[in-house]
Amino acid sequence: MALLSTVFGFAIAGGPVRRNFERVAPVLGTLSLVFGAWYAFGALGLIVYSF
To answer: Are 18 and 25 in contact (CB under 8 A)?
Structure first.
């Protein structure tokens, strides 16, 4: 999670993403939410991890 957050932070802080942050922020938030739900459901044994 820390590595993923760091990558998102670097992506937001530099380049063209900074100028288009209003469009990118919801996408990053949605990806984070989906990953967190997948991780939680896997930890509870409700879904099978693919790894």
So the answer is: no
Domain boundaries in the chain? 2-43
Nearest to 28 by CA among 49, 3, 7: 7
pLDDT by residue for the chain (51 residues), tens digit each?
Answer: 889 888 878 877 877 767 777 887 898 899 999 999 999 999 898 988 776
3-state DSSP of 2-45: HHHHHHHHHHHHCCHHHHCHHHHHHHHHHHHHHHHHHHHHHHCC
Does this model's pTM top 0.70? My answer is no
- Give the Å distances, CA to CA, from 36 to 12, 14, 18, 25: 20, 25, 24, 16
